[in-house]
Design brief:
Number of helices: 8
Order of helices and strands: EHHEEEEEEEHHEEEEHEEEHHH
CATH superfamily: Electron Transport, Fmn-binding Protein, Chain A
Helix content: 10-25%
Number of domains: 1
Protein name: Pyridoxamine 5'-phosphate oxidase putative domain-containing protein
Shape: globular
Number of strands: 15
């Protein structure tokens, strides 16, 4: 059965706390800058573009202000005058990431949203453990079967894009009857991609195999499904309550040589001792640095540790 309204969605995924809205910033702050100073690689996604995905290394971006970044030596063909763009930044060996949403004009991105993203997707996917031996893939079905990490690339009613990570064990993503099926796991309280799909069903899904420096993507019309198909995605006897069904219209692939720095440095990144812990940064984004921030930190840290034990 398809879910067509946010009321139906929230009957399954309870509404998030309004406090979570405060984690979404309009500009970079010290915690974001701290994360970016450690980052080695980012995935750039462009809405309504024939080649939607690009991988960037740290030399290919420069933040010129708290609300603006420039792309260096990045060639993107067929750009419109103003393109919705989203980025996801990684630090080798670190599960949580940083997301930026905004607008690309020529080589400059104007930031509209920036926020830290939890590490559950990376943990589910065992993202920092490359697949060995690396599989030989020559078709979509094999790629989907081996993929453990992915992104949902959606847009809201105003056209602002979102790049949301997803992680699964081998076989967790499904290609069935000409559709791509993406299960929804516990912990996604904000449900931004699902809410976007309810308003704008155009969706692009990118899937990656840890250790391979490329991705495959599929674009089409998405719907939220809470039917019996998700029993095929059960893990440890726990079946997803719902997920996304993508009716595929177009597909493609993209080489991502910049990803080499991720796994190469995942076990040798000695600089993360200067990285602000995710729970502290998130708490201060939501409640500030005063007493409320300290109180929130304890609660947030407890929730994060609980979520790590309940990935499914």
């Amino acid at each position: 059965m398809s879910i067509e309204t946010e009321k139906q969605l929230r009957a399954i995924i309870p509404p998030h706390s309004p406090l979570l809205d405060k984690r979404v910033l309009a500009s970079l702050d010290a915690h974001c800058e701290n994360y970016l100073s450690h980052s080695r690689c980012a995935l750039l996604a462009l809405a309504n573009h024939p080649q939607p995905f690009y991988a960037l290394n740290a030399k290919q971006w420069t933040f010129t202000s708290a609300t603006s970044m420039e792309l260096n030596d990045v060639t993107i063909e067929a750009l419109s005058s103003k393109q919705a763009a989203s980025l996801f930044f990684w630090i080798p060996g670190v599960d949580h990431g940083l997301r930026i949403n905004g607008w690309l004009e020529q080589n400059r991105i104007t930031i509209e949203q920036v926020y830290l993203h939890c590490g559950r997707a990376a943990m589910r996917a065992q993202w920092w453990q490359p697949t060995h031996p690396q599989p030989i893939i020559d078709d979509d079905a094999s790629w989907v079967a081996h993929a453990r990490y992915g992104f949902l690339f959606s847009q809201d009613e105003q056209g602002l894009s979102q790049l949301s990570p997803r992680g699964e064990p081998n076989g967790g993503f499904l290609l069935h009857q000409g559709c791509l099926w993406i299960p929804e796991r516990p912990g996604n309280k904000y449900a931004i991609s699902l809410r976007n799909v309810l308003k704008n069903p155009q969706l692009t899904v990118a899937l990656l195999i840890p250790g391979l420096y490329r991705l495959r993507w599929w674009h089409g019309t998405a719907s939220i499904d809470d039917g019996d198909v998700w029993s095929a995605c059960a893990v440890d006897g726990k079946t997803p309550k719902l997920g996304l069904r993508l009716n595929i219209h177009t597909s493609g692939s993209a080489p991502l040589p910049a990803l080499q720095s991720l796994w190469k440095n995942a076990n040798a990144n000695a600089n993360t001792d200067t990285l602000t812990p995710f729970s502290k940064a998130l708490s201060e984004h939501m409640s500030g640095k005063g007493l409320m921030g300290k109180l929130t930190h304890g609660v947030v840290n407890h929730i994060i540790e609980k979520d790590k034990r309940q990935l499914y």
